[in-house]
Amino acid sequence: MYRKVDPTQEWAENNYYHLPIQQQIADLVPVNSFWRDYASHTGDGPFLSKNLADASRNFTEMMFALAVLDLPFEAAKHEVKFDGGKMTLTPKGPVVAFHEEVRPVVAKGAPINILVSENTYRNGDRFREENGERFDKFVTGEFVINTVYGCQVVVTNPTSSRQKLSVLVQLPIGAIPVANGQFTKTVVVDLEPYRTHTLDYLFYFPRPGRFAHFPAHVAKNEQFVAAAQATTFDVVKKPTKLDTTSWDYVSQHGTTEEVISFLDRENVNALNLDKIAFRMRDRAAFESIVTLLRERHVYQPTLWSYALLHANVPAARQYLLHTDQIVNECGGPIVSPLLTVDPVERHQYEHLEYKPLVNARAHALGHRRQIVNDRFSEQYHRYLKVLSYRQSLDDADELAVVYYLLLQDRVEETLATFARVNPDKVATRVQYDYCAAYLDLYTGEPLKAREIALRYANHPVDRWRNTFGALSAQLDEIEEKGPKVVDPTDRGQQQGQLAATEPGVEFTIDAGQINMTWQNADMVRVNFYLMDVELLFSRNPFVQQSGGQFASIKPNATQVVKLPAGKSKLAVPLPADLVKRNVLVEITAGGVTRSKAYYANAMDVKLTENYGQVRVADATNGAALPKVYVKVYSKLANGEVKFHKDGYTDLRGRFDYATVSTPERQPIERFAILVLSDDRGATIRDTAPPQQ
């Protein structure tokens, strides 16, 4: 049965499995303990890491981790023995084993209903990092005046019951709130079982001294439940104990050599590098620090911005490349000594393909060509915008233009553009070769197309092997070897093969003879009806509907013709008394009925009604006729007759007259088909739409 063409889909290359280009960023595989182990691996012996489970944030990271692990592709059969509560594993090859153990512990005291903790930290210096792990950096000693601190209150419900609590928080005596804070505040907290709630507030001390702090208190139904530990703040004008090894001290008071030494031994990703921005005015400090950070694969925009001050071209290029505001203002592709912008690398543009896409018109209607698929129209004009920034198009640009022109059936422009592409200068050689073979069918050079397709007959990528295989199957059909399905999921190949097995009969009337051709039939019934062709045509442009008007009329003559086996052609003379009459000839075979008035033409036109295809061949030798113009009108269910599509037969002489990507809102009842050849005349056919 005929199957409607699938909706047009938009396709993009996914270098990473099922990820759009916008998600293919550096954070896709973040740094963790597993990749630290891999970076530390010397290569002496197999690489195995006990931190394998850390590399499981997404599919890409898991595949990368499995790729670098020296585990076999197929696991060996390890020996496992159980002896009571003891298991013995004897591996027969490299293996990663996860072991979990349950041990008894001694309970400590009675359970606590609500847990409360309160800790103070310096605002802007909240955490510290050790061995890649982040820890709280709470302040427990002295506090400094005019310095903003934060207090974190954590309330935990360790019970299985929902708790509705009131939390009273208060600033230390002598402190001033900041960030719209309050001296005293009560917060209602609705804690689900086994949940935690966190409160933060900020303050500073304007003068030194010792100040008591009323800790956070928790109440339920106006009854005290729990409280944090009371503390006293020791506030000083200047710190009496300086941590000369901390980043805060070294960045502000250390020498350039001390700063560089600190950066060289510490985790620079955990440091606030803005603290040393003032040092970047010195050229020597700038170059030393930037060089060290670059070797550590760290980029910091504030530090790199000083490259413009020092006219350091490599660093300035890197700074401009990472400054999105400047890049976005500049627009499309740019190649200059200071800035190179590739829209693909910056995820501003990606090549998209559209399949299936069947155009209704082969020629522009009016002076302006219209792309009716909105998504393709947007992509095409987006690409033209990118190209408008280039001084000249390179070979990769031209090849992409070839594809988008082909989607619009602009064959002559496509051939001219493709001729400018140098295959030695494009990275996508497979795509180039397919375009070359595809266009060889348009230029009538099937042998060249065959030579290209054969080179990819055993291509390792299934999609490309099947694509070139489908091209070879078309070439086989051009050589009368019959249709072949290469990809069972391809709708076009399926329809072509099914059309080749459908019973059918076609005929022409020429020089007093009925020239019949058929497929999958062994006999036909021929009915003859006298008719006034001019009158019938004037009344109804769908000429072939005349056959239906004769369905209830007794034919003037009838013949039953047995078709010879192994052949597909037979000439049957018209009855002598009908040779000079206007007759409608109706032929029925295998449930398929065809009727035709006499038209002088030299074409053999076969309609495969159930699959919406027409095949045009030379009436004399049966050779397929390419480049035969076919124009189709449809009659809708509401009686409206309108243009449906037009185009040309391919090298197989085939044309799909039913399929368009812009379906009618009203159901189609009939098709009227004009087949026109410059040197073989014309014929008009009509047919029902394919059954679905």
Give the topology.
Elements lengths: L8 E4 L20 H8 L18 H10 L10 E5 L2 E5 L24 E8 L4 E4 L2 E4 L6 E2 L4 E8 L6 E8 L5 E3 L5 E8 L4 E9 L4 E5 L3 E4 L2 E5 L3 E6 L10 H7 L2 H10 L17 H13 L5 H4 L2 H4 L2 H9 L2 H7 L3 E2 L4 E2 L10 E4 L18 H14 L7 H13 L3 H8 L10 H14 L3 H10 L6 H17 L12 H11 L2 E7 L2 E7 L3 E8 L2 H7 L6 H4 L7 E6 L6 E5 L9 E7 L2 E6 L5 E6 L4 E6 L10 E8 L4 E8 L5 E3 L11 E10 L3 E7 L5
Parallel strand pairs: 7-16
Antiparallel strand pairs: 1-19, 2-3, 4-8, 5-6, 8-12, 9-11, 9-14, 10-12, 13-16, 14-15, 17-18, 20-21, 21-24, 22-23, 22-25, 25-26, 27-28, 28-31, 29-30, 29-32, 32-33
Helix pairs in contact: 4-5, 11-12, 13-14, 13-15, 14-15
Structural features, described:
By secondary structure, this protein is an alpha+beta fold. The chain has six domains: 1-11 and 347-427, no CATH class; 25-103, no CATH class; 115-236, Immunoglobulin-like, CATH 2.60.40; 247-331, no CATH class; 428-495; 498-687, no CATH class. 25% of the residues lie in helices and 27% in strands. A hairpin with a 2-residue loop joins strand 2 and strand 3. The chain is elongated and about 130 Å long. It starts with 8 loop residues before the first strand and ends in a 5-residue tail after the last strand. The relative contact order is 0.07.
Mean pLDDT: 86
Report the sheet-strand fraction. Answer: 25-35%
Helix content: 10-25%
Instruction: Note the total helix count.
Output: 18
Give me the secondary-structure category: alpha+beta
| Physical arrangement of strands within the biggest beta sheet | 4-8-12-10
Quaternary structure: single chain
- Cα end-to-end separation: 6 Å
Low-confidence stretches: 107-111
* Radius of gyration, CA atoms, in whole angstroms: 40 Å
Tell me, what's the shape?
elongated
Main sheet, how many strands, which sense, barrel? 4 strands, antiparallel
Please, how many domains?
Answer: 6
| Extended strand count | 33
